[in-house]
Amino acid sequence: MVDDGGFDVAPPAGGTVRDLLRAAPGGPVDLGAIGPRSTPGLPDRLVTGPDRKGWARRQVGLVGAGLARQQEMLFAGAKADPDAGRRVLLVLQAMDCGGKDGTIKRVVGALNPLGVRIRAFGPPTAEELRHHFLWRIRRALPPPGYLGVFNRSHYEDILVPRVQARAPEQVWRPRYAEIEDFERELTAAGVAVVKIFLHISNAEQARRLLARLDDPTRHWKYHPSDVDARARWDDYQTAYAELLGGCGTDAAPWYVVPADRKWYRDWAVAHLLRETFDTLALGYPPADFDIRRERERLVATGQAAKVNGS
Amino acid sequence: MVDDGGFDVAPPAGGTVRDLLRAAPGGPVDLGAIGPRSTPGLPDRLVTGPDRKGWARRQVGLVGAGLARQQEMLFAGAKADPDAGRRVLLVLQAMDCGGKDGTIKRVVGALNPLGVRIRAFGPPTAEELRHHFLWRIRRALPPPGYLGVFNRSHYEDILVPRVQARAPEQVWRPRYAEIEDFERELTAAGVAVVKIFLHISNAEQARRLLARLDDPTRHWKYHPSDVDARARWDDYQTAYAELLGGCGTDAAPWYVVPADRKWYRDWAVAHLLRETFDTLALGYPPADFDIRRERERLVATGQAAKVNGS
């Protein structure tokens, strides 16, 4: 058994997870220097412990319970002051098999579903293609008070045209600036944006694709185009490296989460969410009614004698 | 400790929960004859056991894990055959403090959030009022492959006008037939509709409202109009009794879930969902590609030597 401090959330070691995993802006991120099996923020004794997976699962549960409380405060605050527009947007990007679905299942699944809006973005539909690439994104933004989760996002509109050569550079290159403007607009409107790239290795992708092929209950997750995309692995890594270094702002930074180890990935994403909610310094809004008077009115409706004795 | 059969889902006693809780159609349901603290489907030894809450929580977790698997099959099936339109819609109705939010948090929270779309309906907005009352409902329907959850619903458009006398009977009465047509249309389009009324007692509502007033972290859930609505308790019960008996069809029946005991409520709702998914007889779709060929293509992309040794 790992000594995990009982039922408390163990703090990350060496700084916040945000600080440890933040992609440095300004130029291409050196993804080759970030080990997909590395575990920043975790002491060695936890990483090598025999119960590391169980430990991480419990920690995600504990962080999730705390986040559920913060979600509630976010929701209550938005009810009291909708114009503030406060909400959180989690953007998940990854190569195929990078673990977006698993992260949502495990981490977002530990939160309160009442306050979550999840949206997956596939290849644009015919209708979506008739609009600006941000049209479908804007329509999917979470309302104030909610945590929105984007399973893929507007970043596909740079990555895919670029790597698949579906559009010339003069189409996708200007999207960098458009996205930066869009995300500045979001943060000004009260949206805390957390952008995460789940970083897996080429070998891990091969393992996971093969596991899908070998399991009839997972064939539905496989598509032959996955192998075609895999053949362009290096091109995608180059495109991601530039994107992660070029589309992060102070208000909407990118985080690179090593993701070959699923248990670490979930732990890190849970903490990134927690630390983001912490920056909002949330609290419950004060009552906008006279508590004593309401108590009297309630008691007057009867059955109240039983109330105190229950 | 209650003997709960280890890690298995304990089957309901005395029939399916659907059979036990189904509201008989044809005339007003006698809500007075259904005890809000009753526990249909549970053997006495479980109801009186000291660990009944822990037992129910574990059972909901087990049922939820099975449902997550069925959700996945529903999703995979819809991906393979979107035209079938198969999806599930859970409609939750209750008096204030009836436990809609808690049910979603506990039961829906045990499922996979990837496949869930939750929508809460408040008083209609100015824009919504300009449309037919089903307009906002249609826009909120889950896509094929998803479980949709309605936190309140189109039924508010009968209940509120009627009880609050906001509209004459010739406005809300025809909505019975419109809703029946609408729900027939849904079921024809592949939607399995599960409508649940969470049935609490007057005294329990008083206790829960008072608990909100006495807890500053729950003031945001309280509104003075809750007491006004409570003063019309009998009118609401009468309206619900007629609605539960009058708006259920074979395809879209109503279930009355005794809800004073939260642990029973969650157990019953979890089983109602499970039994509904069971009726769909879901399975994974077959691969629409050549598995052997894809395996060869994948191995040819390299790194595959590591695959089998991992």
From TrEMBL, chains A, B:
Pfam families: PPK2. InterPro entries: P-loop_NTPase, PPK2-rel_1, PPK2-related. GO terms for biological process: polyphosphate metabolic process. It comes from the Bacteria. GO terms for molecular function: phosphotransferase activity, phosphate group as acceptor. Residues 68-276 form the Polyphosphate kinase-2-related domain. This is Polyphosphate kinase-2-related domain-containing protein. It comes from Micromonospora craterilacus.
